[in-house]
């Protein structure tokens, strides 16, 4: 399998963490797509992913799977023993809900702030910007941080009692927050403590270097 990605990107991080958690590194060939040059918006890449975003998983039969959630669901199911996306209908529902909530209320909101209220990937990629919309989404992300801090006051992981795709998505959000220098307020102690625990996981710690030659 091939993953088309950008080694330091927040969304690619979600899939890199899932690859490591599922011990699939030896089965993956990473191919870098240069976002800074707008390669992801050129016809050759758009043929892989209509949405022009990274990462994209390319199967050996030529099938392309984009969208971090979809890629994670595929990878998690490969060994017939899903550990990241839920082992029962109740777990699957809760994990999907909390992962989608993490996208809507945190990660995607920070992405909009990055693309609209900062120089983003540069004028050749950011062909339309609306700073007010970007700042509104930044404020939404800060509310999202408060929400997830509240969740983590009551349970050890984002979707309940064990690590899941939902944790990985919030990790992606906080990686993006770091990249755009959006601080997690100090008073969100449960979120800070959880993030410190997450950063101790080898899958999180080694996510960027995993694609470097052994
Ligand atoms: N909904 C998509 C969003 C993916 C996404 O936005 N990826 C970023 C990659 S990174 O910024 O996290 O490295 C991207 O392609 N951004 C480029 C752009 O939006 O022009 C997903 O979940 O996979």
TrEMBL record:
The GST C-terminal domain, residue ranges: 88-214
Domain of life (superkingdom): Bacteria
RNA-binding found in the keyword field: no
Keyword Signal: no
Domain GST N-terminal as annotated: residue spans: 1-83
Annotated keywords: Transferase
Listed GO CC annotations: cytoplasm
Xref: PANTHER family: GLUTATHIONE S-TRANSFERASE OMEGA (PTHR43968:SF6), PTHR43968
Annotated protein name in UniProt: Glutathione S-transferase
Organism: Tardiphaga robiniae
Lineage of origin: Bacteria, Pseudomonadati, Pseudomonadota, Alphaproteobacteria, Hyphomicrobiales
